[in-house]
Write a structure and sequence with these properties.
By secondary structure, the protein is of the alpha+beta class. 24% of the residues lie in helices and 38% in strands. The N terminus is likely disordered. GO terms for molecular function: structural molecule activity.
């Protein structure tokens, strides 16, 4: 009896230990956080418009003739004659207006727009965007934008100095566009749901299909999901199911995600990102730098008084060489913490770690994909 009790106690301890270890490597996420609905993507809109009310920071009509043409055309449409004379006021600027039409947007709702200068305007601060139509890739008008422009940057200048912070030739109009046309496709007209993984991975796609099929078997009596490839998972709509409610239930299912091991290096900024699954085989690394400093201190040599000598320049060069580092360390990275600790023990800066990681990859000891940006 005591032996059985000890066996059960040992089994309980092992079960608790495995339960504590599993969450350390098993990462779970909701389906809505790792995948997006193919039918729920954004659509890009673009338009050409004018910004008025600038304080002398707009386009010059000589260098930007399209601004004057657009202004004359706008005034003629308003019934104002523009015959004779040319305006030299720089209070108008031609801009490109861009926006993203969100999925399932309905007429009457508002979206933000971004304006960017086309001419030689120096600042759009304080301007107002005049009514501008925004078209899609099919040429149809889906929204109309108008409103005050908000610019985060500023510019101050005088006769001898200029101070500029941020970008003053681009800005935003929050809620400045009103949607006028509904997208031709409707969500409930679809016969299936297509989920697209934000980080394509075959293991994650298969797990999503299995989780959805487990839910569908308990709810509708059969599987409905199939993983097409590493990015797409297709879910067929059951006859008795409502598509909106089905998507709401599916997107909240919990899935164990998986990602390939990667090391991302940006040599310009010195940024290093090491994934949690990166492994390094045992390898010995030595890193050292040689610094050579050359200093030129020429000396002026003057001739003796009342002599016929000439002033000359005598060159003098001092060369100093210094070598740092040179320590040999053994790096064996069974996990991320050990790998980072081994790299830190060498005592090098990020640029040195970048060189070391590239050398380890060339030696075949880095069990991960090395991405250079």
């Amino acid at each position: 009896m005591r032996l059985l009790f000890r066996f059960l106690t040992l089994a309980a301890v092992l079960a608790m230990s495995l339960a504590d270890v599993a969450p350390a490597w098993a990462l779970t996420s909701r389906i809505k956080d790792i995948a997006s609905l193919q039918a729920g993507r954004d659509n890009q809109l673009i338009g050409y418009g004018l910004i008025v009310g600038l304080q002398g920071t707009g386009d010059g009509f000589r260098s930007s003739p399209f601004t004057e043409q657009s202004m004359r055309a706008m005034l003629q449409n308003l019934g104002i004659s523009t015959q004779g004379g040319q305006s030299s006021a720089k209070n108008t600027a031609a801009v490109m207006v861009t926006a993203n039409l969100p999925p399932f947007a309905s007429p009457g709702s508002r979206i933000d727009v971004t304006v960017s200068s086309l001419g030689d305007a120096t600042s759009l601060r304080g301007g107002t965007l005049v009514m501008t139509s925004l078209s899609g890739a099919d040429g149809q008008i889906y929204a109309v934008a108008q409103g005050s422009v908000i610019v985060s940057g500023f510019q101050a200048q005088g006769q001898a100095a200029t101070v500029t912070e941020g970008v003053t030739t681009a800005g935003r109009v929050p809620g400045g566009a009103i949607i006028e046309r509904e997208l031709p496709s409707r969500f409930k007209d679809s016969v299936n749901l297509v989920l697209q993984l934000r980080n394509p991975d075959f293991s994650t796609a298969i797990r999503i299909a299995d989780i959805v099929n487990g839910y569908a078997s308990a709810r509708f009596g059969g599987p409905v999901a199939e993983a097409k490839d590493s990015q797409e998972v297709v879910i067929q709509k059951p006859r008795q199911a409502d598509l909106t409610r089905l998507m709401a239930d599916v997107e909240n299912l919990i899935v164990e995600t998986d990602t390939p091991a990667k090391v991302v290096i940006n040599e310009r900024t010195g940024t290093i990102v090491i994934g949690s699954d990166v492994r390094v085989s045992p390898v010995a690394v030595s890193y050292g730098t040689l610094t050579v400093q050359v200093t030129e201190t020429p000396q002026i040599i003057q001739p003796e008084p009342f002599s016929r000598g000439r002033t000359a320049v005598q060159p003098q060069t001092d060369i100093a060489a210094e070598q740092t580092g040179g320590r040999v360390a053994i790096i064996d990275g069974p996990d991320l913490r050990t790998l980072v600790a081994g790299l830190n023990n060498i005592g090098v800066k990020p640029d040195g770690i970048i060189a070391i990681l590239q050398g380890i990859k060339s030696a075949g000891a880095l069990q991960a994909e090395l991405v250079l940006q």
